[in-house]
Amino acid sequence: MKKIIKTDNAPAPIGPYNQAVLSGNMLFISGQIAINPKSGELETGNLAEETKLVMENLKAILTEAGLTFNDVIKTSIFISDMNNFSKINEIYGTYFDAETAPARETVEVANLPKFVNVEISAIAVKS
């Protein structure tokens, strides 16, 4: 059985998908970009702030599902320019303990939705 996770504290989907789906004890969070959930506006002026907003959107969805970043077991990071990796990684790293950080991949892609610099999805497990 699957349960749809929705929160007003993260951006509403911009297509035929949900913010997250809980199936059993596993939470699958759709890729998040730097859309401010309060204004609905895209915020891509500063890479550090853009990455932080992406992570805060993930956090809001985790919170709605009763989870935290400690429950995340896998992330996928998509970036438009690998030269931005170190700055994105620096911000991303502040949300995880290095000893228990999730598995992940980081992939440079030709384009992302709304031409953002970074998109991150996650899988978490409810203990």
Q: Key terms for this structure?
A:
127 residues, alpha+beta, 60s Ribosomal Protein L30, Chain: A
Molecular structure report:
The structure is a single chain. The chain is of the alpha+beta class and 127 residues long. The protein has one domain: 2-Layer Sandwich (60s Ribosomal Protein L30, Chain: A). The protein has two helices and six strands; from the N terminus they run βββαβαββ. The chain has a six-stranded mixed beta sheet with strand order 1-2-3-6-4-5, covered by helices on one side. Helix 2 (85-93) links the parallel strand 4 and strand 5 (103-108). Helix 1 packs parallel to helix 2 (85-93). The longest helix has 18 residues, at 47-64. The model has no long low-confidence stretch (mean pLDDT 97).
CATH fold group: 60s Ribosomal Protein L30, Chain: A
User: How does the major sheet shape up?
Assistant: 6 strands, mixed
* E-strand count: 6
Count the domains: 1
CATH superfamily: RutC-like
Order of helices and strands: EEEHEHEE
Q: Could you tell me the mean pLDDT?
A: 97
Class by SSE composition: alpha+beta
CATH top level assignment: Alpha Beta
Protein name: RidA family protein
Organism: Autumnicola edwardsiae
Family: Belongs to the RutC family.
